[in-house]
Design brief:
By secondary structure, the chain is α/β, with parallel strands linked by helices. Among the domains are: about 120 residues, Rossmann fold (3-Layer(aba) Sandwich); about 120 residues, Transcription Regulator spoIIAA (2-Layer Sandwich), CATH 3.30.750.210; about 55 residues, OB fold (Dihydrolipoamide Acetyltransferase, E2P) (Beta Barrel). It has a six-stranded parallel beta sheet, sandwiched between helices. It has a five-stranded mixed beta barrel with strand order 15-16-17-19-18. It is globular, with a radius of gyration of 23 Å. The chain starts with a strand and ends with a strand.
Length: about 450
């Protein structure tokens, strides 16, 4: 029997890329590959890239420069670039770095096995099309090997919102949703492999409009209620959402669906209506706050998470103060804040930019406020009884680590729980980035 080939995948960016990397590894399994954590022993290296962060493409080229030396020492090594930078850069990647054998966009990675065969024959392979066929239909069922208790499951891709700062509509394409039956099939496969919690993924996941088993179009809430019926699946989450797509049935599901966890990531980006308009966000600060009110009316204990961009072109101190006011009003349990950086080809890249030092200072201020809110909410958890999905062993003897229903990392001391168990705990201490707990009997 031939010795398996080794595959090393480096994943950048979002949770959807994590999911895509898993599927790429599974598809190449049919070509005799097994994953390795050591790039130096790999027969193929894939960089699954993200175009969201600043200078994303240059970071990829820098990594490829390092890999070139590895390929010089190991001429049979094949190097591929996948993901959103691959989609955006295409042939330019191969031109700038001839060591690259394969470039594949996020909508075409189901073709990896035939592309791998092509590069093994000595040719280069490039596919950054938006193919007509459904890549998920082309991918085989997932292998039956045991899984961690939490898993991602992509249900929607692309975005039609065209926010002025974002490249997703250009790298991932228009909004598309997977058929409900295929999602349910994959979810059941994951549960059969030991998964207890599934996070539904999409660039704009709450715009889901997949075909139902009866042929009608289904909403994300419809899908969640179908997943709720799967025996063995204990928890459901979804990310990332747009405020304009928080429909009544989805809000109601937060209050009525037992398996839907009390956590919602709902990016707003700015609290200034002027900046929101310039961002092409299609909502106002007030409409966002009204959505939050409705969600909390349905599920009073829900923990809110958000995204913020500071230093967006033309942002003034007054605009920034409006963002701070919105954060004060919402009180986030989690939030992610970033300094604006240009994305070539997006409308905002051509506008007057905020002074970088001023943007840095605003980022520090917003992060200080968010950190205070997060710590306050974590402190309020002390003494509460929560349930924790156990995911791994801790550093201390007898300690286990998992996630609460609110997505907090929880360290359970003196626990005899097993990975995959959902155990009742009492929170004893709030730390900077986690909670400590004792298991309740």
């Amino acid at each position: 029997m031939a010795e398996p080939k080794k595959l090393f995948i480096k994943t950048y960016g979002c949770q959807m890329n994590v999911y895509d990397s898993e599927r790429m590894a599974e598809s190449l399994g049919g070509r005799g590959y097994v994953e390795t954590k050591d790039a130096e022993e790999a027969d193929m290296i894939l960089l699954n890239t993200c175009h969201i962060r600043e200078k994303a493409a240059e970071k990829v080229y820098s990594e490829l420069g390092r890999l070139k030396a590895l390929k010089t020492a190991k001429p049979d090594l094949k190097i591929g670039v996948a993901g959103c930078v691959a989609q955006a850069e295409g042939e330019e990647i191969m031109r700038r770095q001839p060591a690259v054998d394969l470039v594949v966009g996020p909508q075409s990675y189901h073709r990896l096995p035939e592309m791998e065969a092509q590069v093994r024959s000595g040719e280069k392979s490039l596919d950054t099309d938006f193919p007509q066929e459904d890549k998920f239909a082309a991918l085989k069922s997932r292998p039956k090997a045991a899984r961690a208790p939490s898993a991602f499951l992509t249900v929607q891709e692309g975005c039609d919102k065209f926010c002025a700062f974002c490249v997703v509509p250009y790298t991932r394409g228009a909004e598309t949703s997977r058929p409900v039956a295929r999602i349910l099939e994959e979810a059941r496969e994951l549960v059969d492999r030991g998964v207890r919690e599934i996070t539904l993924l999409g660039q704009n996941v709450n715009a889901f409009h997949g075909a139902g088993e009866d042929g009608s179009e289904k909403t994300l809430a419809d899908l969640i209620w179908k997943l709720n019926e799967i025996n063995g699946l204990a928890r459901i989450r979804f990310t990332t959402s747009h405020p304009n797509d928080m429909t009544d049935d989805l809000i109601d599901a937060h209050g009525a669906c037992e398996k839907l966890m009390p956590y919602l990531h709902l990016p707003v980006q700015s609290g200034s209506d002027r900046i929101l308009k310039r961002m092409n966000r299609s909502h106002t600060a007030e409409s966002y706050l009204r959505v939050i009110e409705r969600i909390r009316a349905a599920r009073p204990d829900i923990l809110m998470s958000g995204d913020f961009i500071v230093g967006f072109p033309e942002e003034t101190e007054e605009d920034f103060q409006a963002t701070l006011a919105l954060i004060e009003a919402v009180k986030y349990g989690y939030a992610y804040s970033f300094k604006y950086s240009t994305r070539p080809g997006t409308p905002a890249a051509e506008r007057p930019q905020v002074d970088p030092n001023e943007a840095d200072e605003r980022l520090q201020r917003i992060q200080a406020l968010i950190t205070d809110q997060q710590q306050q909410i974590q402190n309020e958890m002390v003494g509460r009884d929560l349930s924790v999905l156990v995911e791994k062993t801790g550093r201390n003897p007898g300690q286990m680590v998992g996630k609460s229903e609110y997505l907090h990392a929880v360290h359970i001391d003196n626990s005899d729980a097993q990975i995959g168990d959902i155990v009742p705990v009492r929170i004893t201490e709030a730390k900077r980035n986690s909670l400590a707990a004792l298991r309740r009997k």
